[in-house]
Amino acid sequence: MRLLIADDHPLFRLGLRAALEGAGFEVVAEAKDGLQAAEMALKYAPDALLMDLKMPQMDGIAAARKLRQNGYTGIIALLTTFSEPALIAEAARAGADAYWSKEVPPEALAARLQRLKGGQEPRLTPPPMPSLTPREAEVLAQLATGLSTKEIARNLSLSPETVKDYLDRLYAKLEARNRVEALERARGLGLL
């Protein structure tokens, strides 16, 4: 299997390359950031791209999205130390096939890649898009402009308590703990 490795830490790339080549994989290229990874994946068309989640220029999720939009059909596996469900969901929506911890031993990583290529390893699947009622969408739009609960209530002719209820429902649907997370997730989902 032909691989491309993308990580902004040269020592990590070197170690991963040595381990995977030792397991019989061919590493056709290495990239130091997401932008370079996207360009090289389109140029070399590797069977799989192992890519860090957090990188300069373009993160792994944005690079995965760009690659899928440009027709890349190989495996995209994100390697990371971050395990937040929202990041995993965003990676799946961007077209990543796998989201694995950097703590996975190289031999296990090699086995997972083989299983993924052979269809024996489940691929990431995007969670369903949250369905907002028209009023929830209005509250979200108002929230995005930076308005307070009272200001949203005044603009929509609602009581502040009713707006708080809508905000609670929005937070639950967006799996957010606060306004900032709700807006971040809504933007990531294309709801804003």
UniProtKB/TrEMBL annotation:
PROSITE patterns: HTH_LUXR_1, HTH_LUXR_2, RESPONSE_REGULATORY. The keyword DNA-binding applies. Keywords: DNA-binding, Phosphoprotein. Gene3D superfamilies: 3.40.50.2300, Winged helix-like DNA-binding domain superfamily/Winged helix DNA-binding domain. Residues 125-190 form the HTH luxR-type domain. SMART domains: HTH_LUXR, REC. This is Response regulator UvrY.
